[in-house]
Amino acid sequence: MVKRGVFIGRFQPIHKGHIKAIKEILKQVDELIIVIGSAQCSHSFSNPFTAGERITFVKKALDENNIDPNRYYLIPVPDTNDNRIWVAHLVSLTPSFQIVFSNNPLVRRLLTESGFKIGEVKLFERKKYTATLIRTAIIEGKPWEESVPSSVAEFIKDIGGVERIKAIGETKLKL
Amino acid sequence: MVKRGVFIGRFQPIHKGHIKAIKEILKQVDELIIVIGSAQCSHSFSNPFTAGERITFVKKALDENNIDPNRYYLIPVPDTNDNRIWVAHLVSLTPSFQIVFSNNPLVRRLLTESGFKIGEVKLFERKKYTATLIRTAIIEGKPWEESVPSSVAEFIKDIGGVERIKAIGETKLKL
Amino acid sequence: MVKRGVFIGRFQPIHKGHIKAIKEILKQVDELIIVIGSAQCSHSFSNPFTAGERITFVKKALDENNIDPNRYYLIPVPDTNDNRIWVAHLVSLTPSFQIVFSNNPLVRRLLTESGFKIGEVKLFERKKYTATLIRTAIIEGKPWEESVPSSVAEFIKDIGGVERIKAIGETKLKL
Amino acid sequence: MVKRGVFIGRFQPIHKGHIKAIKEILKQVDELIIVIGSAQCSHSFSNPFTAGERITFVKKALDENNIDPNRYYLIPVPDTNDNRIWVAHLVSLTPSFQIVFSNNPLVRRLLTESGFKIGEVKLFERKKYTATLIRTAIIEGKPWEESVPSSVAEFIKDIGGVERIKAIGETKLKL
Amino acid sequence: MVKRGVFIGRFQPIHKGHIKAIKEILKQVDELIIVIGSAQCSHSFSNPFTAGERITFVKKALDENNIDPNRYYLIPVPDTNDNRIWVAHLVSLTPSFQIVFSNNPLVRRLLTESGFKIGEVKLFERKKYTATLIRTAIIEGKPWEESVPSSVAEFIKDIGGVERIKAIGETKLKL
Amino acid sequence: MVKRGVFIGRFQPIHKGHIKAIKEILKQVDELIIVIGSAQCSHSFSNPFTAGERITFVKKALDENNIDPNRYYLIPVPDTNDNRIWVAHLVSLTPSFQIVFSNNPLVRRLLTESGFKIGEVKLFERKKYTATLIRTAIIEGKPWEESVPSSVAEFIKDIGGVERIKAIGETKLKL
Asked: pLDDT tens digit string along B11-23?
């Protein structure tokens, strides 16, 4: 049987810490389901990019890192408002899996209560590589490009992502 | 005609203050509809338990206090996002009632605007018995069992409720 | 451990066939969760009564039949649009159960896929006692009262249920 | 106090029968709330036009008939899936009203149960002027323009409404 | 072609700053679509009034200011939870427009990304005329009537709006 | 620039006609977005398989046909209830695309109205290869395996898909 794991993130945007984690997990499983969480969200400070944009730059990032496309699935999963049905929702949208990689204690708890195995994933330079810091740097006009794969930085600039995040930041200040 | 009242709570978890209030209200009405509010919620700090778990321990608590099952209805009611339809939603899910017991001014206002009578319910040792304090005590590893009927404490421990609330607390700190 | 079963119906309205089935099931379990399905529906041909009205007349019917209120739970469960999350939804709204009583092959299949045991329930004079026939009789002005407990017939008349079902029937013809 | 009525339709499209009815009702009330029902629907056989398109051509039709804009409100109202909350939903989206004009028995029943008065509105040449016939004529390439105010026919053609309805008709045949 | 603009607000309540802005915009366009945003909301501190109540007092305010009803549309638009579909949602509920007036940077960004032109609207005494200040003054029992057209102040008092906002304020303090 | 197309299906299940069409389209574009439509549906006659199951067997079918995983994206897209926002919803969940392949006239119309180019895709032995016929054959116990790639037939049997579809068929007969 194929050993399949799931890795859940929002990837707003994908950064070098994510890439490092995915490479580590791929040593432990045959196939990895990369879940693009909060897939319905976009144009907010926490979630500036649409699921479609995130799928595009996650694929670019994995290609740039020579990760074999036969080793992973890339699946957008919208939030459920209700935690009580979230596991069933996740399971229905993904190929079957046995092990879950996440550092979120609630996600770990929900999947543990449903009988899934929780894997360990060490975070790589966690203080340096976080999506929140990247988005904040963009708003403040500070350098951020080094934290993400170069194809991701290029794509974000091409689609006007910098202007979008700044507009969202301005709204936040105003309200 | 049967004089029927409604008492609205989230019961996360039910505590001795709730029991005291229910006993007081049962002196004023023939039958009481106990609404388990926010029924769609679970696995969050404000709402750790599912509606099904809450129905189970509310029934246990009422049995432990010898409250006649013919005197009450126990009905889970999910939230509506929109206040403007909440009264119609509540009415559609419950047997007909004439009087409402609640200390929430908005709930009182909504039901007053729809023509319902608002009853008075004194809260028993309100500072001591609140569900928020109980959940906080569980996270901090402090004693909480005395605030709830013993069958409720036992059930919460049996279903892993303590571990769940602690995992949620950890998530909160992390985010 | 308490042996708990679940019996799922829409009860539009509850009839003597339902009562017979509930009595039979109560011989097999300690406690029975009676699920009022499609709880969000009302004022249509398939679902004329609100969940609140159905809770009221199901309780009356069980009382009329001297069924001990400590033996059952009466829980309204709205539909999910998506079958893939229905079992998780049902489980979250109900006390824990081990066995399911239903004659609907899809319900049986969904719960079997989730690992639940399916019990057998013989239907009592199925041709005679069906809610669809009762509603059709009401529209056509034919006798229907004998098919339901007398307290149910009385309640339906009291709340204007006959007029409501006839208005719905008229709409149906018109559209 | 202002005597205000409500007239509920889907206006897919508005036709001369609607105009006639609105003129009749305006003799009975000071102000009329014209509800554009099923406002969320479009691009289907029953509901080809968006709410925005319907607002546009209803306004044109009323102008063409010299109906004073101070006598009416034009309000899009999306459907609720649940009849039990529909009246509360309608009330929340409209200025207060006392009387309802509708030939749909269910709508009449729902509003009667909530205590509203139902007015009488005679339908003008009902066989000739129905939106379903107009849409069918468009699909079949038969004349339909005479059934609607000329500004409405012109607008529908301008926005490609004929092509849209034909495409929808083709889909229907195919599925 | 008609030059049509859209002006988006929540109007909780409409105040003299809004009126001034609408008058300014009407110099730039033939017709103005006034969108009553967050139309599903009511009975909260940010959104105390229902869409129906807001439609009523916006109409009164425009009449009081002698604004020609043939120059504007008044359309309630509920929120979408997802920004990614908000423009399509807005477009579907409104007559076609070319230019948007808003001071919210996110609204401006979303509509710019979809190709709409953004107009400029100067805010009139912005510090003095804001709906938040008006609602706060009502809670605190301070004067607020001068900030809104007199027909609006009268209507709010008539429907018990002052009591409603105070009840909501009390709830806020309590929670 | 990458020339990207989108191909929309429900793949209940994927069959040899789909494979043929995908191969044809891949001659016209650099990359193809394969949309798994009605992603929220499962366990019904029209949509027996979950999105996760469909992703699994579509991937197997493409692998069996040696289609390069760098040439396509496989994206589950839930339905919107409202056609008016469907294009925005589709666009938000997918990488950017220029051309759409679909034989559904409504889908073609919706995307044409939004300015997308519609491509031509010839259906291969359309009478022989349709998912509806395959599901009907499964219910009736007739041979169906030859219509789908062999890895797909094997997977469907492994997950109990035959039993599921038969249970659904039985329900249909009963209701």
From this structure: 999 999 999 999 9
* Coil vs helix vs strand at B29: coil
Amino acid at C160: G
Q: Where does D15-172 show beta strands of DSSP type E?
A: 31-36, 72-76, 99-101, 117-119
Which residues, in sequence order, are bridge partners of residue C36?
Answer: C9, C76
B84–chain D nearest CA distance, Å: 6
Q: Check pLDDT > 50 for residue C175.
A: no
What residue in E sits closest to B82 (Cα-Cα)?
A: E41
ipTM given for this complex: 0.94
Q: Are D49 and D4 in contact (CB under 8 A)?
A: no
Burial of A122: CB neighbours in 10 Å, binned 0-12, 13-18, 19+: exposed
The pLDDT score that the predictor gives to residue D1 is 81
Beta bridge partners of B119: B101
C172: confidence class by pLDDT, cuts 50, 70, 90: low
Rounded Cα–Cα distance for residues D74 and D55 (Å): 7
Residue given tokens 């709410």 in the structure block: D51
Best mutation target among E38, E43, E55, E138 (most B Cβ atoms within 10 Å) is: E43
Burial of E106 (0-12, 13-18, 19+ CB in 10 A): buried
In this structure, what token pair is assigned to residue D152? 């409405």
Can you list the residues of chain E whose pLDDT is less than 70?
123-125, 171-175
Residues C121-133 have pLDDT tens digits of 876 667 778 999 9
Q: Is the pTM of this model over 0.90?
A: yes
Average pLDDT, chain C: 93
User: By the CB < 8 Å criterion, does F80 face chain C?
Assistant: no
Mean pLDDT of D109-114: 95
C-alpha pair distances (Å), F36 with each of A79, D30, D43, F12, F52: 18, 53, 21, 9, 10
Q: How many residues does chain F have?
A: 175
Query: Which H or E run contains C8?
Result: strand C4-9
Length of chain D as a residue count: 175
- Dump the DSSP string for A16-81: HHHHHHHHHHHTT-SEEEEEE-STT--SSSS--S-HHHHHHHHHHHHHHTT--GGGEEEEE-PPPS
- Computed from CA positions of residues F27, F28, F33, F35, in that sequence, does the dihedral angle turn out positive or negative? negative
Torsion angle, alpha carbons of D61, D62, D63, D67, to 10 = 160
Find the largest Cα–Cα distance for chain D: 54
**Residue B52, both tokens:** 């099904």
Q: Is B143 on the interface with E (CB under 8 A)?
A: no
Instruction: Look over chain F and give the mean of its residue pLDDT values, rounded to a whole number.
Output: 93
Q: Is C89 on the interface with A (CB under 8 A)?
A: yes
Return d(Cα F154, Cα E73) in angstroms, integer: 59
pLDDT in tens, E113-134: 999 999 988 766 677 789 999 9
- The yes-or-no verdict on residue F175 having pLDDT over 50 is no
C143-C145-C146-C149 Cα dihedral, nearest 10 degrees = 170
The region, left, alpha or beta by phi > 0 then psi within -120 to 50, assigned to residue B14 is: beta
Whether D68 shows a pLDDT value over 70: the answer reads yes
The answer to whether E89 contacts F89, with C-beta atoms less than 8 Å apart, is: no
Q: Give chain C's domains with CATH numbers.
A: 4-174 (3.40.50.620)
Across the interface, which of B80, B82, B88 has its CB nearest the CB of D87? B88
B100 — phi, psi (to 5°)?
-120, 135
What the block records as the tokens of C173 is 């013809």
Distance CA C13, CA C148 (A): 8
